[in-house]
Amino acid sequence: MPGASGKITIREVAAAAGVSTATVSLVYNNKGEVAQATRERVLAVGEELGYRPGWISKVFRSGRTNVIGVAVQHGATDIWEHTYLPYYRGIIAGAAMEALEHGYTITAMLVGPDGSFVDRFSLDGVIMVDPRPDDPFVKQALSHGVAVIAEGGYSGEVPPGPLRSVRAQVELGVPRVLDEFRLRGSRNPAFLRGPTNDLYTDLSLSSYTEWCESHAVEPFEYRLHEGQHPIDGARDLLSGSHGDYDSVYCLNSTYGRAIATAAAELGIDIPGDLAVAVAAEEHEAAADPRLIYLVLDPVESGAQSARTLIRLLEGGSPDDVLMPMRVLTGGSTGQERRRSRATDPSTAGSRTPSGRTGTAGR
Length: 362
Hints:
By secondary structure, the protein is of the alpha/beta class. It has three domains: 10-62, 434 Repressor (Amino-terminal Domain) (Orthogonal Bundle), CATH 1.10.260.40; 67-167 and 298-323, 3-Layer(aba) Sandwich (Rossmann fold); 170-296, Response regulator (Rossmann fold, 3-Layer(aba) Sandwich), CATH 3.40.50. Helix content is 40%, strand content 16%. It contains twelve helices and 13 strands. The chain has helices at 10-17, 21-28, 36-49, 55-62, 78-101, 136-143, 170-183, 199-214, 230-238, 253-265, 298-313, 334-340; strands at residues 67-71, 105-109, 125-129, 147-151, 163-168, 189-193, 221-223, 247-250, 275-281, 292-296, 320-323, 327-328, 351-352. Helix 1 packs across helix 2, helix 7 (170-183) crosses helix 8 and helix 9 packs across helix 10. The protein is elongated.
């Protein structure tokens, strides 16, 4: 009969198999000298009864805790709260659901400016969101023997250790947006970005610059100053003092909203006078259908990150993951947009050789 909790206990397995509880423990922890016939009998009885060892037993047996950390480094600013925090929550949600299916637990991590962290749960691995170039956290985690997934990609010198990347394929997505601008008659796009560098920003900017060069267009990068509010930068960009631009690509939804607000203040019609595109989550497209959206999917990225990390932890050799991006335009249904605007339908869920460089984030 099951114990009071309704679960089969180690004592019940021992009694049914005719051995001691110590022998059952040795069998399930794969330790000690147990005759092969006895081992097989214990495992068969355990399977028949539905016995499942507790997590502590699993830790002793595998030497792992089955705990995965998710680490972020942005601070508590308005932009962080309204743009990055919702995205990070999506990553955590996706990672948690995927980890649960594989018997793992997710925990958030506190990361210091110098990359230091407190390993409160003896983590098996970490998903680092938007690591900086040559990120000190990634290096410290790997030096502690902790496997790392760089969600958003890793740039700089690749440190030794189990490191993989999961990122959005912005180098295909950004040119698709710029092509959409041209279809709408826009010929002179500007690029609006924040003050910090990460691989997502760098790849987005290089894709924009290469597109401009291939179309004989002079590129213009408007970089917000540290502490500059996006709306002030948007007003400055649209004032005409930097040139006459008929379209703007915005690196995130906060910058997109700033451009829309500044345009309204200046009497600039969107999309009649100014085409605007933004990298954002799909649900944000409903807020302003005048804009073009390059879709980011944090839930799927979190799930892919957890899946790749678990494969790495369990002895596999997974490749880096490239996630295709979709371009959504106003006036079409989600199903129609998915059919017509995928960056590259053949690359859905595509992977790259595990060189672990040349990858991107938000």
